[in-house]
Amino acid sequence: MHRAGFVNIIGNPNVGKSTLMNAFVGEQLSIITSKAQTTRHRILGIVNGDDFQLVLSDTPGIIKPAYELQSSMMHFVKSAFEDADILIYMVEIGEKSLKDEAFFKKITGTKTPVILLINKIDTSDQEVLEEQAELWQSKVPNAEFYPISALTGFNVKNVFNRIIELLPESPPFYPKDQLTDKPERFFVNEKIREKILLHYKKEIPYAVEVDTEEFFEEEKIIRMRSVIMVERETQKGILIGHKGKALKRVGSEARKDLEQFFGKQVHLELYVKVNKNWRSNTRQLKRFGYDQS
User: Is 0.70 topped by the overall pTM?
Assistant: First the structure.
């Protein structure tokens, strides 16, 4: 018997969804930073076994949208409810509610199997954990409950095994050697954006989108040309930095990670362009792959 299904991970920003996804897949598909709204797209990670295929979906953290880009991000979350065979609802120690009540009602009212994970228990103690467990089990009585630490790996294997047990009987949805549904350029864009999230403050990381315009793979090297979009000239200056040093750091760190990801030498050219108010422009958002439905 072969099992296969979609397992969709949802929760508030910064609960560790991407860390869990990467732990399951064994590759860093989703970028991870301490900043909210790090994940903008819905990213699939595919885990294959001899008799199963697990299609994991990491979605943006649930927020109340303030502009068009955030509305598009929430469309990805809504789609996670529609095709889930198993729903993972992830919270962290200290959380008491989901930021969108409508989403919470969907979770408690769904007929899809729900696994409730309390993450970051390595930052707490037993007394607090027991209080949180009681709180969330009363809020989401239809869920199976697991305390985990996605960062340290505590209980992650047990959750993974339970997911496999819950998968419906089905042939695989994707080729058995496929790791994700995203093209290579997507991961180049995300790796560059990760470095910007790590090194810049205030509005800069949120005003940025990356577009890899060229990707040429040769036998021993991949040559890439990526453009970083910002909304204003002042942001462009901050991003580039004095004598281009800030941008060079982003490029150097991204290149090293990309060489590890692709397993070969990478030549990366970075440019910065002003694309005014792209976060509120539906045409631009569609170009960058954000859902407009």
Answer: no
